[in-house]
Amino acid sequence: MRDFHETNEIIGSLMVTIYISGFSIGPLFLGPFSEMFGRYPVVILSTWFLNAWILASALAPSMSALIVFRFLAGIGGSAVMTISPAICADMFPIERRAFSTALITLAQCLGPACMYFLVRKCSCVLSSPSGPSMREFHLRRFGLAMGKSRVDAKQSTS
Q1: Are 73 and 54 in contact (CB under 8 A)?
Q2: From CA 87, how far away is CA 30, in angstroms rounded?
Q3: Are 74 and 21 in contact (CB under 8 A)?
Q4: Most buried residue among 83, 95, 152, 157 by CB atoms closer than 10 A?
């Protein structure tokens, strides 16, 4: 929010809410698409869709663009969680289906929980007052930082 000079806390909480809204609307379309076109293409395409909108969110020029990008990322992110029980039902016989579905659901729940603690542990580096903001971090990570390029930075240090 600091990068967009936004002080309204409601807009800040909207970032999570709008992603969850997309996450809840996505299965309405992606579930039937997986029945018509197959599970594999829908999962792969929606994962690429998610990645594209996450990248767009990292590089969003304004707060309104970020809200739209987060909503679209939520739609793309919902496919794997929605379609994975159906994939288990297709792959395993009835006797082993409960265990496989439980294992996939456990992984889907533990992944974000473990990532939360990892981010909390690493956030001290990124959120220090003298360190870069998250937007600057993403821009550097993708090599899109304004000013000196990596080549210029290497030449100035030598």
Answers
A1: yes
A2: 14
A3: yes
A4: 83
